[in-house]
Amino acid sequence: MLGRLGWDAIPLDQPIPLIAGAVVMLILLGIVAWVIARGLAPYFWNEWITSVDHKHIGIMYVLLGLVMLFRGFIDAIMMRSQQALAFHAQGYLPPEHYDQIFSAHGTLMILFGAMPLVIGIMNFVVPLQLGARDVAFPTLNSVSFWLTATGALLVNISLVIGEFSRVGWLPYPPLSELRYSPGVGVDYYLWAVQISGIGTLLTGINFVTTILKIRAPGMTYLRMPMFCWTALASCLLIIAAFPVLTATLAMLTLDRYLGFHFFTNEAGGNAMMFVNLIWAWGHPEVYILVLPAFGVYSEVISTFSGKPLFGYRSMVMATLFICIVSFCVWLHHFFTMGAGGDVNAVFGIASGIIAVGTGVKMYNWLFTMYGGRIRFTTPMLWSLGFMTTFITGGLTGVLLAVPPVDFMVHNSLFLVAHFHHVIVGGVVFAVMAAMAYWWPKAFGFRLHEGWGRAAFWFALAGFYVTFVPMYVLGILGMTRRLQQYDVADWHPWVLVSGVGIVILIGGVICQVAQLAVSIAHRNELRDLTGDPWDGRTLEWATSSPPPVFNFAVLPQVKDAEYYWEVKRHAREAARLGREPDYEAIEMPRNSPTGFVCAFFATFVGFALIWHIWWLMILGLIGAYATFVVFAWRDVPEYIIPADEVAPIDRANREARQEALAGAATT
Amino acid sequence: MKSSISRSARVSPAVLLWALSISFAPDFAQADSILAPAGPIAAGNRIILLDALVIMLAIVVPTMIATLAFAWWYRDSNTRAVYRPGFTYSGKLELLVWSIPTLVIFFLGGVIWIGSHKLDPFLPLPSKMKPLEIDVISFDWKWLFIYPDQRIASVNRLVIPVGRPLHFRITSASVFNAFFVPRLGSMIYAMNGMVTQLNLQADRPGTYLGLSTMFSGDGFPDMKFDSVAVSATQFARWTAGVKGAPLDLGAVSRLLRQSRGVVPYTYRGVDTALFDAIAARKLPPGEGPATGRSRPGGPNVMPRGGR
Amino acid sequence: MSTADSTLPISDPYRLGYRGPNLARGHGGGGPATKRVIVGYGFWLFLLSDIVVFSCLFAAYAVLADATAGGPRARDIFDLDRVAIETACLLASSFFCGLATIAVAQRNQILTQAALAITGLLGLAFLLLEASEFANLYAHGDGPTRSAFLSGFFTLVGCHGLHVTVGLLWLGTMMAQFLAKGFRPDIGRRFLCFSMFWHFLDIIWVAIFSLVYLVGTRL
To answer: How far apart are CA A434 and CA A441, in angstroms?
Structure first.
């Protein structure tokens, strides 16, 4: 009746997941109770859960990403503390638990932390920067978000019902096959990643269509902001790479569920093929994360240097160059598989070549700062932290691209330090910069600068103290994923790394404090005009937060950095341009399709994990029915009449005119 | 806004690493560090590592200095800095920033091409001596080292003669592992159904750390072994004096069961066809977990790796 | 597909004959495209991603083609006659889908329903033939669990069959929508996507038919 599910699935004998699960459930119940008690349920349903507005979807993505990043960070604390304790000892985490933790850490951080954060930022910013009203397929956007949330939910359910995968963040066979992992863990992983992978693929399609087909009139390709170019490259990579993940995980799923032999140890299965396929996805995946991060830095460095981006065209070329070459380097993840000198050398050289594109970008940011007037706001600090941190991560990356070097440090903590260097230094720092930079646009008030800086310095220091010892450990031969060890030379460095994570905890506390303090003091931190940073791109032309339709009238873009030009003219004339002719605006209707579809997807995923076939069938029928209901609706859009648009826009124009007059008299 | 960057607070981690490694150099000579090679392969890899590091530092250090210098000089409060808002393109600079990394990568590309071929694990070492053949099989969770010419085998302990090239054939009876002795040289995967090869040599006696670098399950921390390099005469004495049960199908089937914390022991009398049989998948693969949390008679939904 | 547009005024700044203020001059400055272009383009990107999925399955099939584990090889199990009939059914169904496209452009309900119905029946015939091939193999003990080669074969061809099944469900929904709501523009755009999907399945089948069945039995 309930497949493999039974009462023994709840870890009654393991205090840590039980307590963690209980705490999380209490918090969730508390939030739900508060929402209902304050009568806010209709508001959340109408404005957020069923919203197809890219701004709200972006904010929800970022919220999901932050929560999962936090959970991944807790896993990291557990890993560091276990390793600090487990020298000639068992530590406090037995192998079956420790193995789940490092697998969850990687999976959550990359697929449910970094991906939603990056996608959320793209969601919020790209249509605004393009002068568009929304993305190409707003309801599909909502579906994408909720499917990603379903995946995250499934991973978290594994904490209290069953267990999570124990084979690492990429489920290499034969270890992940039924013979060596007969439990539910790998199945939780497979369905969570597959379901959220569909969401991500749809996002990729959505944004490529948006960027290529829905730009404001006059915005030619070379007038697009740099962030939109990197978003385009990243989404092209999503479209090309995520199907590989889908197919590969599907093959592993068929092996586990139906006894197929793609990667098994018998009947001709080929585990090496899995490694090739999964990294053919895996390498583009890291560029999917880092390209939008590069875009964020382009925006932030340009704005806070008071200069346009240096070498815009060569940045575009470098971005597309990285996009293409990222498909040609996957073998560098397994030089030690023994492909021979020729193959290893070709992929090593290709991996070095991709560093050229990144190097070009680094120099363009450098020369953007040259001749600028740099303001060291929180986003700029994160960007400078990136420029110094990422480049060393790139250095170690090029070292790893040399096969003889990789033969000595593959899968060691040297490798772990390298990829954290580039992912934390590259992607996480960008997310923090982007949050600080676009927060005023999203919520109408700035974040507290002091706490932001404290968070940055703690994070930077904590990062180095945690990960530099790992380079040393890799040199000393320590491999990754060790639940315990007895090599005395490793112990002191492991302890230093543990101190580092305490410093990072300080950074997290400062970051949370920044959010709390900023929200409490939001009235003093208000952004009245919509342009708190003296920005250069179109999103700063709207109010903070923008109205649902973004722009009352679509801008007729006449050159690159059009908003900066308009501002310059307004400043010279000491008044705004003439008021536009307001017209009625058509906006997409909100829809529960995304939420309902994900609701059924959760049941389908859970049912597949626990082999509850009748529930799976019901869930699939429900999901299909949801789409048919959506397809049957007659009125997909609603009209905002011109006389509703006008006062909203006029209010923003007044605020800007006041600021302009105030600036002219000082 | 006041600048809040202190240049001294930013130390390149690579420089830090270098400083640390120099200050701990004596420790590295005793530690099982890849910077303290005890064989020609490890020595060759080490030279390439250091060369590549120096080449990359030559680019990275000036860039980092320039980053901090530009950020400091062009800060908003510095009235002496010239504001150049129109400086958005320079052909010369473009040429420079594309060509310098490209040239470096060309150079590194040469290092990569030559190094990948010279240090290919499958390449036999140049030597007048006939290499010692060792067949390696990884199990859950122990290593089996078969010496086919001597008809002996050792579990979790590798004894090798100094100064003689070693030719390893490596496979796995169950899941991916990777054979690695950091002080002797390169690692290579151990994969079921495949035979990889590794050519190493120990140039001085000692006991070196050996381990698996590919996660293989709950008993993974146990996949470590001592690699003991002894003189040729001591090695001959050891091979002659090895005692133990014969390594036959029965012994292999016991090895195929998951077990942890296996203390090193030896076999005398080895069926030399066993390695090829396992590699060609003629024998069943290693068993999976036998215990776990499940209802009596129900499926093993939360397995526990062998105790 | 573009014939459906010819009766409407040209509002797409990228098309010849456009007379509006935002004429695109080849650098992408034409402003937002029409809904039909946006929907078609987005769906085309989805089809490209689906091609990548099939590419992976083709690659897996190629790698595993010799891993027969003592079981049957390609030439032992493929029946080219049945495959020829399957191909004819699928290609013919695409032809009738094309006829349906013309019927939709002419807003002819009866012809639309008829053409779509024949499309569906031919697709169903294809599926039944394929299912019988699978059932036969399974009955002989040559199911997908027999060897890696068979796993690869069943997955590749089965994935295509799964797509055809989903396509038939979609087809039924489209027929119902045309009946219930007539020839509204949004349903027309949806049908554009469906017909692209159906023709795409044809292309994949041609690749399967050539690379799996023909190459498998001839070499």
So the answer is: 11
Tell which of B74, B184, B199, B301 to mutate to test the A interface (max A CBs under 10 Å).
Answer: B301
Which residue positions in chain B have pLDDT lower than 50? 1-9, 24-26, 307
What digits encode the pLDDT tens for the residues A493-533? 999 999 999 999 999 999 999 999 999 999 999 988 899 99
Sort out which chain C residues have CB atoms less than 8 A from A204's CB and list them.
Answer: 45, 49
Confidence at residue C13, expressed as pLDDT on a 0 to 100 scale? 53
Region(s) of chain C under CATH 1.20.120.80: 34-218
Q: What is the architecture, at CATH level 2, of domain C34-218? A: Up-down Bundle (1.20)
The interaxial angle of helices A449-475 and A491-520, nearest 10 deg, is 160
Active site residue A223: no
Residues paired with B208 in a beta bridge: B227
A84 touches chain B (CB under 8 A): no
From the CA atom positions of chain B, what is the Rg in Å?
Answer: 26
Subunits with 3+ Cβ pairs within 8 Å of A are: B, C
Partners for B (CB, 8 Å, 3+ pairs)? A
Query: Considering just the CA atoms, what is the radius of gyration of chain A in Å?
Result: 25
**Greatest distance between any 2 Cα atoms in chain A:** 83
Its ipTM equals: 0.94
State the DSSP string of B171-207. EESSS-EEEEETTTEEEEEE-TT--EEEEE---S-EE
Q: What is the pLDDT of residues A618-636, one digit of tens each?
A: 999 999 999 999 999 888 8
> Does A268 score more than 60 pLDDT?
yes
| pLDDT confidence of residue B187 | 97
- Give the closest-approach CA distance of C18 to chain A in angstroms: 15
Q: Is the distance from CB of A329 to CB of A283 less than 8 angstroms? A: yes
Other CB atoms within 10 Å distance of the CB of residue C207: 16
At A1, the pLDDT band (50, 70, 90 cuts) reads confident
Burial class (CB in 10 A: 0-12, 13-18, 19+), B289: buried
Q: Which residue ranges form the domains of chain B, and what is each CATH number?
A: 10-118 (1.10.287), 132-287 (2.60.40.420)
Dihedral over alpha carbons A46, A50, A56, A60 (to 10 degrees): 120
Whole-structure pTM value: 0.94
pLDDT at A241 over 90: yes
Is the Cβ–Cβ distance between A87 and A494 less than 8 Å? Answer: yes
Find, among A513, A456, A514, the residue nearest to B5 by Cα. Answer: A456
- Counting Cβ atoms within 10 Å, is residue B3 exposed (0-12), middle (13-18) or buried (19+)? middle
Q: How far apart are CA A226 and CA B258, in angstroms?
A: 54
| Residue A340: C-alpha distances to residues A331, A336, B44, B45, B116 (Å) | 12, 9, 17, 16, 8
CA of C160 vs chain A CAs: smallest distance (Å): 13
Kind and range of the H or E run holding B92? helix B91-118
Instruction: Identify which of A193, A144, A202, A203 has the alpha carbon closest to the alpha carbon of residue A165.
Output: A193
Q: Do A182 and B299 touch (CB under 8 A)?
A: yes
User: pLDDT grade, residue A575 (50/70/90)?
Assistant: confident
C175 CB-near residues (< 8 Å, 6+ apart):
C113, C116, C117, C120
pLDDT given at position C1: 33
Buried b (16+ CB within 10 A) or exposed e, A504-531: bebbbebbebbbebbeeebeebebebbb
Task: Round to whole Å and give the CA distance between A456 and A504.
Answer: 10
Ramachandran angles phi, psi of A320, nearest 5°:
-70, -35
| CA proximity to A72, closest of A26, A29, A93, A103 | A103
pLDDT at site C28: 77
pLDDT of B174-197, one tens digit each? 999 999 999 999 999 999 999 999
What pLDDT does residue A559 have? Answer: 84
Q: Which of A156, A351, A358, A544 is catalytic?
A: A358
Q: How far apart are CA A430 and CA A125, in angstroms?
A: 14
